[in-house]
Amino acid sequence: MDKLAIIGGRPLYGEIPISGAKNSALKVMVASLLTDKPLTLTNVPRLADVEMLLRLLEQHGVEVDFEGSTLKLHGRTITSTEAPYDLVRKMRASFNVLGPLLAREGKAKVSLPGGCAIGARPVDLHLKALTAMGAAIELDEGYVIAEAPKGLHGAEVTFPFVSVGATEHAMLAAVLADGETVLKNAAREPEITDLAECLNAMGAKVSDAGTSTIKIEGVAQLNTAQHAVLPDRIETGAYAMAVGATGGELTLKGARSDLLGAAWSVLEEAGLTIEDVDGGVRVKRNGNPVKAVDIVTQPFPGFPTDLQAQFMALMVTANGVSRIKETIFENRFMHAPELSRMGANISVDGQTATVRGVKRLKGAPVMATDLRASMSLVIAGLAAEGQTMINRVYHLDRGFERLEEKLANCGALIERVRE
Ligand code: EPZ
Asked: Which of 173, 199, 228 delimits the end of a domain?
């Protein structure tokens, strides 16, 4: 398994190109199952998760042509409506093939999903929405077996709490359903709006995406379209936090500050300057070190759970005490003991981590536990004195495109050790 070796203590200066958003790309790729016409996606990041989903789509019969960051998908005919355990278990986003297969073919058998080990992560809300649209669903030996012999119909679905995945899944199924679907208490993440834009480019009628009530008027068929995936707000935030931890100044090319939600003002409060510049966002740290700030993770536009780990890495050397409350996932503090190995002072009590800023971190061998936790260790390693060796880098390869190259170009001493 590859490792990352980092010699910390150097400020970051330069430009980092921000890739297309993983969590948007994975959903718009699934939209290719909804039509027998080609779908062209641009700004698609080259990530292990994207490759994994491509294998699943190919298995359903989708033709794939991936050149640079342009991905052409053509679901001319669906050759299989079954998504096997081996292809679904590693990544939760794969589960979203269920709705489109059901909408187009009237049946599907999809393994229950896996993904990062950050909590129980059930799919009850996904199934609730599909059932409301007329699907008959059974669970059998780890598989969801769904049928809609008369097709799906529009429905009013009220989610008891906000779920990004369930909102997207319901949208993907409803675009071909008969009649109107109304999704209440829907997620408002930028990736939802991006999916709606892609579906509408294909001829769907989705309105009010980005608000908590989304309306979808079903259409008989979808057409060929081209769509550019929006920039990755989590990658943007992670590099902003890296510069907060090391000092320096980065221009994040292609980034959009409006996608950062509450993270923007939190970083400003901590002592970063973030400004829109031509073609991106410029971030720099004012003074040394940053100031401790409390956060609570929330659905968009609140502070994103996907930046919580990276923010903790910024807070470990901040001036003061920061309280970090995680409300979305119940097991998302696995980076805390690893950061402590580097000298951080963190105590976790249930949903809240209390981080008492220390003067400096010392490099150490640490283990990446999940995608965003791994990035928090990279940030800590960049700021620490001496060498940090991060084990299990495959987590990072799932979600951060060309990480070492992007950081090394800005002065970081970071190297992949292949084993
Ligand atoms: C998406 O996961 C993202 N993944 C996650 O990013 C992100 O952390 C999360 O949204 C929240 O923003 C992808 O887009 C591929 P949810 P998702 O449904 O859709 C519970 C990363 O690091 N829930 O909004 O799975 C669930 O357990 C990943 O890139 C149910 O109880 O998140 C969680 O506690 C990690 N039943 C909460 O809702 C359901 O049917 C929110 O989850 C669905 C969800």
From this structure: 228
Catalytic-residue membership of 198: no
Which distant-in-sequence residues (6+ apart) come within 8 Å of 259 by Cβ? 190, 230, 231, 233, 236
Q: Which two tokens stand for residue 201?
A: 């480019």
DSSP secondary structure string for all residues of 182-240:
EEET----HHHHHHHHHHHHTT-EEE-BTBSEEEEE--S----EEEEPPB-HHHHHHHH
Q: What is the pTM of this model?
A: 0.97
Give the DSSP letter of residue 382. H
As a whole number of angstroms, the distance between CA 293 and CA 270 comes to: 6
Ligand 1 centroid, distance to 95 Cα (angstroms): 12
Question: Does residue 317 share a domain with residue 193?
Answer: no
**Per residue in 140-172, pLDDT tens?**
888 999 999 889 999 999 999 999 999 999 999
Count of residues in the chain:
419
Any atom of ligand 1 within 6 Å of the Cβ of 371: yes
Determine how many CB atoms are found less than 10 A away from the CB of residue 293: 21
Minimum-distance ligand 1 atom for the alpha carbon of 187: 24
- Residue 42 has what pLDDT? 98
Domain hosting residue 375, numbered range:
3-19+231-417
